[in-house]
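User: Show me an example of a complex going from sequences to structure tokens.

Assistant: Sure. Here are the input components:
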Amino acid sequence: MPSLKPATRDQLMKVSTATLCTALFKRGLSHQFIQDVRPLNPNLPNMVGEAFTLRYMPAREDLNTIEVFKNREHPQRKAVEECPPGAVFVIDSRKDARAASAGGILVSRLMKRGVAGIVSDGGFRDSPDMAKMAFPVYHQRPAAPTNLTVHQAIDINVPIGCGDAPVFPGDVVVGDGEGVVVIPAHLADEVAAEAVEMTAFEDFVQEKVMEGRSILGLYPPTDEQSRIDFAAWRQASGR
Amino acid sequence: MPSLKPATRDQLMKVSTATLCTALFKRGLSHQFIQDVRPLNPNLPNMVGEAFTLRYMPAREDLNTIEVFKNREHPQRKAVEECPPGAVFVIDSRKDARAASAGGILVSRLMKRGVAGIVSDGGFRDSPDMAKMAFPVYHQRPAAPTNLTVHQAIDINVPIGCGDAPVFPGDVVVGDGEGVVVIPAHLADEVAAEAVEMTAFEDFVQEKVMEGRSILGLYPPTDEQSRIDFAAWRQASGR
Amino acid sequence: MPSLKPATRDQLMKVSTATLCTALFKRGLSHQFIQDVRPLNPNLPNMVGEAFTLRYMPAREDLNTIEVFKNREHPQRKAVEECPPGAVFVIDSRKDARAASAGGILVSRLMKRGVAGIVSDGGFRDSPDMAKMAFPVYHQRPAAPTNLTVHQAIDINVPIGCGDAPVFPGDVVVGDGEGVVVIPAHLADEVAAEAVEMTAFEDFVQEKVMEGRSILGLYPPTDEQSRIDFAAWRQASGR
Amino acid sequence: MPSLKPATRDQLMKVSTATLCTALFKRGLSHQFIQDVRPLNPNLPNMVGEAFTLRYMPAREDLNTIEVFKNREHPQRKAVEECPPGAVFVIDSRKDARAASAGGILVSRLMKRGVAGIVSDGGFRDSPDMAKMAFPVYHQRPAAPTNLTVHQAIDINVPIGCGDAPVFPGDVVVGDGEGVVVIPAHLADEVAAEAVEMTAFEDFVQEKVMEGRSILGLYPPTDEQSRIDFAAWRQASGR
Amino acid sequence: MPSLKPATRDQLMKVSTATLCTALFKRGLSHQFIQDVRPLNPNLPNMVGEAFTLRYMPAREDLNTIEVFKNREHPQRKAVEECPPGAVFVIDSRKDARAASAGGILVSRLMKRGVAGIVSDGGFRDSPDMAKMAFPVYHQRPAAPTNLTVHQAIDINVPIGCGDAPVFPGDVVVGDGEGVVVIPAHLADEVAAEAVEMTAFEDFVQEKVMEGRSILGLYPPTDEQSRIDFAAWRQASGR
Amino acid sequence: MPSLKPATRDQLMKVSTATLCTALFKRGLSHQFIQDVRPLNPNLPNMVGEAFTLRYMPAREDLNTIEVFKNREHPQRKAVEECPPGAVFVIDSRKDARAASAGGILVSRLMKRGVAGIVSDGGFRDSPDMAKMAFPVYHQRPAAPTNLTVHQAIDINVPIGCGDAPVFPGDVVVGDGEGVVVIPAHLADEVAAEAVEMTAFEDFVQEKVMEGRSILGLYPPTDEQSRIDFAAWRQASGR
């Protein structure tokens, strides 16, 4: 698995999940957006990192008493201590937000350990605190009940589903104010590079639209003049 | 189809969707509120305009490659350029927010063209940007994947469903911080006028409630005294 | 039914619904969190009070014309005037947010009467106004259509379901920025006391985690040193 | 409350829920069909009787141990023994089929007691046995877990919702192979009579359609000839 | 639009929707199966025909009184009389089965007119009668309430969605005991031919599996011997 | 992990999933019933066996072309060949029935290999054929699209969720006409034995109820006489 290059990470910090989804769609990948998750704090820079995953299964009551967390090998706690700095911690909560995927203390620990962010297709508890942290947290909706009520952590860093998207360990995960997209590891460099180009063009189009130009012939640039104008704009704006 | 009178528009700028729903309910219309949509920017004045509609159907993959937008006659792009200034652009996305109904550039173009606002029962992409625009945008939830992933634009300005509400072209669409209501065109004037009256009474009641009065006999004003007090209040407040 | 003690109320003002859910889970109660409701104004102190309930059933059209509110004995209006000061008004709306559980005037009346807050597993109308009030209101999503469209108030202060949680009159209801939890009346004192203790420990852990300590051995405190440190912290911090 | 007349019951044995829904729709009642329930045994005569209701709320674990059924006053067991012969037992299970509304023994007891049938918007256990009984049982889907897992019986013979339909004790409940409809008590006689008339006309139309006639002018009979033919058909067929 | 050839129709009578879905998947078409519909009578031959469509929108109460069917131009009634013999009548009911898409009389008329079958992603009324007809009817679940309660017929023979599948007039619709698949018109011949070939191979494999052979190397036939055996089987069985 | 004893298997062949759910409920296990699956052929003896599991994740398009099945190591095909005779093959399809969990050929192979049955919380294709097989198959609803459309097989014999129930390899899975229950391996013997006892009592009660006895004092047997009668019944019936 190729590891995420610093230059690629930098590029991904500056593009949107919407643009990335289009670049993936051009490559035949339609299901890489994690459905129905939102940022607790929408005012942060992009979240970018390789996926480190945790898989939950439905909790069986006898195996999920409050005592289980005394076990240092409990997969949830172990995963929090093992997730590499710079990675994004992605949890398969089976889209079930009736109980928490994790809470404020574990998320704080991840932040302190240099992890890039956390995503669950379920819900987090202590969400009001998390909303004030400078750490990207994405979930479906708040969930105060303790994790054990509904979930049992069972596997660390295996391929999972999250919000109907496939997530393989090492895939590059990008989050912005809109949501989270999963880029297959082998495509990260080329998708990032293309997204930077696309973003330049979209910024140009946005500027022209705000000046009053029609989208016909401009977006996409089927008019020759649009392409000429864009070339000039790039030169002028240094992009 | 009667066109929306400026006076009616002015009245509708000052009343709530809740009040309008009650006025419609009195006329036997119970399903005119677009279910499960919310404003991206909740701090704007009301959105008021006649409905201009776009209908989406499920995308068939071979008909929805990224190339289709090169066609100037593509209904989505065509509709954006044809929607009359002052109208509200309403999209039937079949309540499916897995992919975007539209994105920031098209919505900016609508804004520049003088359109009054946009509503989809699916989701928009580039939603963080839209949330900062002084343009009313209502949807279910953010959706970064490109439109073509799930939707194919198929019909312009036909009767549609949006969030389980029936929407006919020319119906008067009103949005506030709560959501969006659809007023049948032929009722717009009388419903607007009645809503203004109802709002005066509700403001009076709210004032009295905040002064500590019971709602019994006041709301509705089954006590003669309530009606006397309201008459006095109207005179005093010039409403 | 034991009534809520002022000291217990004070304790419950200072703990989170997440902590309370864990204290209840330890006692075998897993379904006390009201699912899928959120505060309209997330910046208020906790909502604490005994449950006073209102039950809605599906509206039958002939029994729910706009005229019914002229009846002073209508259960919705009666309940608003009878809910005791300090109580939390909890509505069983069958998780149906297609029409309003109540609106701004009734909620204002509850606030003026000294009620502690209001919860519905449906939706409220006039929600933008409520979001500005210093009064805790929790619901699923905004709903402009009048109550009568979908709901008929039928019973006051009976046991109900709200967001899949069982609610008995007199249960102690606590809301924070995350959501709402229902504490069985007979457990309120002990759960409140335990939650205060748990909160002290969680605050200690959070502080240590922010200083860089691992969660292993600390949370839960399986290391002897963690317990020693906590004892010292309590002494130092006066908690 | 008028009680169900034998002649009305006889009429309702011979008409369909579809026809009854139309008769109710003409009277402004649109929500009387219990949504998403089906007969376990679709080969029985119609189920007709006055509603006797049981209300469930979400189960709180400490109040719903297996021991509770030792209490002869437990509302579920009490209701089974008190439901009048000829009545239809209708359960508000909050559309939750994760645990049983009741099982084979209770349903057998109802059958033996002369009850007309049973309906739940949740699920029954022992459903394969019930499917062989000559007793009408309607539910959403089979549910093997014991009632107490999810439900607590709380009220006998109060107004309830069942499958989004309002059900008042004494309403006349009719089930056929399609589903279940609830006729407000005061309308039972007139709706039954009208449905008998409508059924005669529908049978006539069906016969004509099977002979090859177009529905235009026939259904509804806007052609004078259709009305003449129907009059002749009634005379000939003695209906 | 190419019309359905008799030979193609014959081929499609003998293959399954499962096989057709795979043939479409190989061509990049993944969403052609109409989700969540089932046959009322599962014991009929395949349904095969070109799609003739009817689009429903949400009903507005004032436009959908029982009187509207007196209008011979009402789209629902008109469509029933205009649907070509041999076609499949496909209704876009927005997956809403709370009221009927149509009932027994209209469906009987379609049958008499030589239509090949009917599909709705909502529900039909008079479903027990339809279940006995030798006419293919597919829907989500029974729905006794009259059409007008929830639906308004608005467009005849336009592109629609049905059960999340795109349906264009003239597409070839095939139903079996499992469900319904939509074949784009231009692919009908090649997909039918390929499905016949695939069916021969699947029948061979099924026979071998029932004789005890492993699927490895057989399905798909990566072992040379499997291909040899299949060739021999074809010769022997005359397929 | 204890393996399933023949005597236990025999006992489990004769008891219902409803009875087993109650025995598990008494031990604090409430979530062992697989929600929302049904037998394709409801007329078979019980399905009993140890769980052998297969986990699906959401399909990524580039990894799930039709070519992948040529790989003999593909987990779906491998699992079919490796599942032990006598085991129940349980698939975690994430409750997604938009595409098939498997089809007729693979299921036939399992049957021929002596597997006890198959369960998916998604859907199977070729379901009409399966419904005629003397092999227990449980799913949510038919799904003609090929597996690869939505699912990617990723793990063999790991702990999974199926219909919201936790399933560990080796758990004892029992299916009847109602659905499927999962018994933790270490409880299988005692739960089976208790269920046999409970079944005897339930059969006795059912007989008495059919003779006209009240359930009060009988079910549960709080009357001394009920216990005496049951003892006599056991003796008489040899159970």
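The lines above are the inputs; the final block is the predicted structure for all six components together. The two ends of chain B are 31 Å apart (CA to CA).
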